Amino acid sequence: MKTTDKKNTTSVKRGVTKPKSNAAAGLTELFEESLKDLYWAEKALTKALPVMAKNATSEELIAAINNHLVETEEHVSRLEKVFELIGKKPTAKKCDAMEGLIEEGKGILEETEIGVVRDAGIIAASQKIEHYEIATYGTLRQFAETLGLEEAATLLEQTLDEEKGADKILTEVAVNAVNLEAAEAE
Ligand SMILES: [Fe+2]
Ligand SMILES: [Fe+2]
After folding, report:
1. Dist. CA 96 → ligand 1 center (Å)
2. Which of 27, 36, 41, 108 is the most buried (most CB within 10 A)?
């Protein structure tokens, strides 16, 4: 028994991950790095949303996606303003999380026939994206406030509110127009 115990304790070694030599050194750097990720994510969404809209059939859903596409373009410009406020050139750095969420959305399109079921899948994928954005903007607004970047915090909050709004509209579309029909189509 003793030998097993020993084995267990060594296998659950909880090490502290060693940072890469160029890893973010402080909150300012973390803020900037996260902005670059988010800038990549928003730009990727301006390309992904039209594909979602093209594959949707519910008029409410198409309208919701197209409306959020216009907002998303504004999110890109707001992030450019935030970069400007901190005296940095807008730079996009691939966001692995958003890439994965967009890939998942594409997978749903491949797995479903066009119609109510695909619409339900598009809503599901889109809401995961909105929730990721809500989490990220919430964090970055807080970072901006902590760093005393009031104007940046306000810009990030404006986008945060629009992401929450988009999420709410998607829930309404799912409840009112899509999910019931998708279940009936079974
Ligand atoms: Fe956005
Ligand atoms: Fe969004």
Report:
1. 16
2. 41
Task: Point out the least confidently predicted range of 14-18, 23-27, 107-111, 165-169.
Answer: 23-27
On whether residue 176 sits in a domain, the answer given is yes
Cα 185 to ligand 2 centroid, rounded to whole Å: 29
Span 121-133, mean pLDDT? Answer: 98
Phi, psi of 22 (to 5 degrees): -100, 15
Domain count within the chain: 1
Phi, psi dihedrals of residue 180, rounded to the nearest 5°: -65, -45
How many angstroms does the Cα of residue 6 sit away from the middle of ligand 1? 49
Question: Does position 121 have pLDDT exceeding 50, yes or no?
Answer: yes
Nearest ligand atom owner, CA of 42: 1
Q: Is residue 173 part of a domain?
A: yes
Secondary structure letter of residue 63 according to DSSP: H
CATH number (domain holding residue 85):
1.20.1260.10
Domain region containing 174: 26-184
- pLDDT band, very low/low/confident/very high, at 48 (cuts 50, 70, 90): very high
Q: Could you tell me the distance, in angstroms and rounded to a whole number, from the CA of residue 163 to the centre of ligand 2? A: 5
Distance 135 CA to ligand 2 centre (A): 11
pTM: 0.86
Residue 147 · residue 28 · CB < 8 Å? yes
Residue 17 lies in a domain: no
